[in-house]
Design brief:
The chain is of the alpha/beta class and 288 residues long. The chain folds into 2 domains: 2-53; 67-275, Rossmann fold, CATH 3.40.50. It is built from 11 helices and 9 strands. The strands form 3 sheets. The chain has a 5-stranded parallel β-sheet with strand order 2-3-1-6-9, sandwiched between helices. Strands 4-5 form a two-stranded antiparallel sheet. The chain is globular, with a radius of gyration of 29 Å. The N and C termini lie far apart (90 Å).
């Protein structure tokens, strides 16, 4: 059998040789194609991992930049088209993200406004007051100074107290002011973390906070990645809530945007662009 095959190949090698070459060429070509496909898959996987670092929540929603489109329907949080007065203006963002600038701007516009404290003597902290009102089942805003503008509601104390109405009390805030404007100031998240680190012991105080519904456990707050995820998930929570409650108006802005004053002046009749400025800037020198 082997001898006959050998004789056949030797007598017909000129005809068979091209077929053998074609067979090996196809085999090598398929192998190269398979390798190229695997490399493309690897590049795609690395791209996804890089994207996850920018947006740790793992989806396509950009939680680092403000949504700027006009609010045309309940699925698109953004600016309103026509200026009008709102029942309340509530800062739904983070401390160290323009809350003092917001407070000063609305005061210039002659709105009654609070920032962190909710009485004239600066002894009643808004966060503690709202928590107490929540426990008693009474309106949070009316009970805590009844201001038109609440520029900072959260409170993290050294006595194991962590209160964030803009995270924990969304239903209560909406029920009391369903036609409010919710303001969401944003900044570069790395710069935000640096500012938190410089402000006395604020970073340490995050350790006493736990918000399971947005996947934040304070014990892990020493990690910058945990803080970034906290930031991102809160932004998305606010956007989702406004989509589900279209009577609200969500105004997102970057605190470094020079057009913030202009944008607010087109939305709020009594607000002038010149009212907006930058306040309470951290010193460049880090806190020792």
């Amino acid at each position: 059998m082997i001898i006959r095959l050998t004789l056949f190949l030797s007598s017909h090698y000129r005809r068979i040789w091209p077929v053998i070459l074609i067979f090996f060429a196809v085999l090598v070509g398929n192998r190269l194609l398979y390798t190229e496909i695997k490399l493309q898959d690897l590049q795609h996987s690395l791209s996804l991992r890089s994207s996850d670092k920018e947006n740790p929540s793992g989806d396509n929603e950009n939680c680092w930049e403000p949504m700027m489109n006009p609010l045309s329907d309940s699925s698109s949080p953004g600016d309103v088209k026509q200026p009008r007065a709102f029942s309340r203006y509530l800062n739904m963002g983070f401390p160290k993200a323009g809350s003092t600038s917001m407070y000063e701007a609305f005061r210039r516009a002659k709105f009654t406004a609070s920032h962190w404290t909710c009485d004239a003597r600066n002894k009643l902290l808004c966060g503690e007051c709202m928590k107490d009102a929540k426990v008693k089942g009474i309106p949070l805003l009316e009970s805590c100074g009844n201001f038109t503008v609440f520029a900072q509601m959260d409170y993290m104390g050294n006595n194991e107290t962590c209160i964030w109405p803009q995270i924990e009390y969304l239903d209560d805030l909406y029920k009391e002011a369903p036609d409010a404007m919710w303001l969401l100031p944003m900044r570069n998240v790395t710069d935000w973390i640096k500012s938190v680190n410089k402000w006395i012991d604020m970073r340490k105080r995050f350790q006493i906070c736990n918000f399971p519904h947005i996947n934040f456990e304070g014990i892990d707050s020493e990690s910058d990645e945990t803080m970034k995820l906290f930031y991102c998930n809160h932004v998305k929570q606010i956007r989702h809530f406004v989509r589900e409650h279209p009577s609200l108006t969500l105004f997102e802005f970057h605190i470094g945007d020079p057009d913030v004053g202009d944008r607010l002046s087109t939305m709020i009749p009594s607000f002038k662009a010149s009212y907006w400025g930058q306040a309470n800037v951290n010193p460049i020198k880090p806190l020792l």
